[in-house]
Amino acid sequence: MSGHSKWATIKRQKGAADLKRGLTFTKLSNAITIAVKRGGGITDPDNNFRLRLAMDEARGANMPKENIERAIDRGTGKGTEAVEEVIYEGFAPEGVSLIIEAATDNSQRTTSEIKSIFNREGASFGQPGSVSHQFEQKGQITVALEGRSMDELFEAAAESGAEDIENGDADKAIITTSFSDLSQVRDKLLAKGIKIEGASIVRKPLVLIPVSDREKLERIHGFIRKIEELDDVQKVYSNLKE
Fold first, then answer.
1. What's the pLDDT score for residue 11?
2. Can you name the CATH fold of 135-205?
3. pLDDT at residue number 34
4. CA distance 107 to 4
């Protein structure tokens, strides 16, 4: 009986892992498609930096090559489904500002799903422009320290044209660049032998809202997690300061 119980547990865990993997591939595929469309249909990652970033992330998640190729085809209009980028704005519980980036083949469905979560959680769904002025687009590069001190990495980042650097998790550092300099800073860091863990375009809040109460934080985190778990949602940005 215990053996059967153990097998059942493993099966459930595997099912959950497969589901999570599928959701990840869906999001990555949509990111590639949007990158191609934003790049004017350019399918060469050397000439479309957004596409290069999306493909790097997909490969890092072991996404099959054929999935990547199908996503690129969709971006050029060859696929059967038309995917568009949609941006949502609003306020999470406790007045925390949110920007939600989504990629969808049915914007009405996506809007309905997101609004439903906002309504259930007592959050406020905003109009376009209601919070976007509180964020600015930046480049963000995650690098491995690999024995380097933060001072050494700071010097390398400054020489490469970065704007800022801060400690990350587990022997990593986060380097911030201007939106337009992300590509060249990334390449210069690679040329210096620095290992790049990831690079992306992010929306960085200009002013943070501090929340220290544990129950309030759990409510905010729970709300954001529900939004992030939607298939069509790519990224969620907030100005929460813990």
1. 46
2. Alpha-Beta Plaits (3.30.70)
3. 94
4. 44
